User: Fold this.
Amino acid sequence: MLSICSAYLASNCLLENAIVPTNLAKSPNVEVEQYFCRGKRDYFNYKLSSALTNFYHALRRDPHYGNIYFFRGNSYVLLGDLPNAIANFNFLLRLKPDFSNAHLVYANRGSAYARSGNYRAAIADYTQSIKLNGSTPLVRENRGFAYYFSGSPQAAIADFQAEGRLFRFKFPQMMELIEAVRHQDESKIKTIWPIVAPNRGQEMKGC
Assistant:
C-alpha cells in the first residue's frame, strides 16, 4: 500500500502517491489534455497502472484539473488502494464543490468506504449521491449492501426494492437479494461494490 498524507489536502502530496514507472519516457511537449485522454483510454481498458501514470503527468501540468482526480480515484478503487482513492475524491470535492459529476464522486467514494468496512460513511455518501441524482444505477443497491452489513436489514430490503423498481431489468436479481436478506442467507448475498463508471462513449468525446 502506498503512503498517504494524513490531511489529503495538498495536490503535491497526492502527486507523490501516484504510481509512476521509473522507465517512463518523458514527453515535456505533450499537453495536459493529451495525457488526460490517454489516461481515460487506459482506465476504460483496465490498464490502470498506465492510466495513473498519464494522470500523474497531466496533474504535473495542471494540478487543478478536477476530472483527473475523479478518474484517478476510480482507478485506485479498482486497484484496491482505498486510502488513495478516498484521498483523491476528498481533494476533488474540496477543489470543485460544484463538480458536474459530483453524484458519481459521492457514489464512488461510498464504494471505497464500503470496501474499507466504513459502512456509516458509505451510507452517507450513497445518500448524498441519490440526493444529487436519483436515477444513477447501482447506488441504491450498494447502499442496500451497506445497510445490511451495518445491521439494518429492513433498510437494505427497501433499497433493493427501490433499485428493482427503477431498473426493471434488475428486478429478479433484487428479489433474490431480498429473499437472501429475509432468510439471513449470506452465502447468496453479493459483496461486490462496483464502481459507478461514467458512460464510456460520452466521456471519451473530445479525446
